[in-house]
Amino acid sequence: MIQAPDLPGWAALLVALLVVAGAAITLVGSFGLLRLKSFYERVHSPTLGTTAGTALIILGSMLCFSVVQTKPLVHELLIALLVTLTTPVTLMMLVRAAIYRDRTSGSEAVPPADGAPTDS
């Protein structure tokens, strides 16, 4: 069942802009996987792109279904809450595991510990 014909033009345009902007931000975040050199640099850009991109896509979804069903729909906020909470936690767990692995293997690419002097 496609309800797109019931969507007014102004809402369709706004939904399209939000979804395309969210997809573009997510795509730009994923380019960081290709462009950045080390794991510790690469891990940040997809995380930020996922959070910001998902927020815009969810706003577009909320607008679309709220206009079509003529009542505010907020169940997408649960999705936004879960993505916003789990993405940074996953980032921290991945980085901590990588730091532990690199420190135990004696790798030179490990970021310094908190409070440790850096070679500047």
Automatic annotation (TrEMBL):
Keywords: Membrane, Transmembrane, Transmembrane helix. The chain crosses the membrane at residues 12-36, 48-68, 74-95. NCBIfam families: CPA3_mnhG_phaG. This is Monovalent cation/H(+) antiporter subunit G. It comes from Sphingosinicella rhizophila. The gene is mnhG.
